[in-house]
Amino acid sequence: MDLVITTLRDVSGSKLLRGNHEDFVLRFIDNPYSRDYDLMNWMCNGGAATALSYDVTPAEHWNELKRMILEMLAALEAHPSHVAAMRDAEHRVVDQGHVFVLRKGPHSRSAVGGVLILLSSLVTRLHPCQATIAHGLDNERHAT
């Protein structure tokens, strides 16, 4: 995240796209009543590498969950610029006829289904223009 933040600061026009991993982190921080669920969901979807990058050992058993929650919260609180960058990330970027999307739809828990819902919505809004939709699964050319 430090490299991302430096790039956002130093390279004019740089944007951070908010994807499901940023959503996992923010949900974990923002929802104290479901932190155990949110943490396990995040860890099952690639979050272990993030935890290790903050020197937090992922829980291997349910009885380690409380320890990991406290350590992960402390690690994120020690890096407020990381959390701020995630909160400020763009949901989509439109640039020279291309739409870049990484975030899932607002009412979907499925990353794949959410992307498809959001793409459908974007294509509808872009009508009758032609645009390339670039997202986390593959690239498609949509024309009317």
What is the element string, with H for helices and E for strands?
HHHHHEEHEE
Q: What is the topology, as strand order, of the major beta sheet?
A: 1-2-3-4
> Structural class from helices and strands?
alpha+beta
Helix share, percent? 40-55%
H/I helix tally: 6
Shape: elongated
- The overall average pLDDT, rounded, is 77
- Beta-strand residue fraction: 5-15%
The beta-strand count equals 4
Rg over alpha carbons: 17 Å
Characterize the largest beta sheet: strand count, sense, and whether it forms a barrel: 4 strands, mixed
Low-confidence stretches: 105-128, 137-144
Task: Give a topology summary.
Layout lengths: L1 H9 L9 H11 L4 H19 L11 H13 L2 H9 L3 E4 L2 E4 L9 H16 L4 E5 L3 E4 L2
Parallel strand pairs: 2-3
Antiparallel strand pairs: 1-2, 3-4
Walk me through the structure.
- GO terms for molecular function: hydrolase activity.
- This is Metallophosphoesterase.
- The protein is of the alpha+beta class.
- The chain has one domain.
- It is built from 6 helices and 4 strands.
- The chain has helices at residues 2-10, 20-30, 35-53, 65-77, 80-88, 111-126, and strands spanning 92-95, 98-101, 131-135, 139-142.
- α2 (20-30) packs across α3 (35-53) and α3 crosses α4.
- The chain is elongated, with a radius of gyration of 17 Å.
- The chain starts with a helix and ends with a strand.
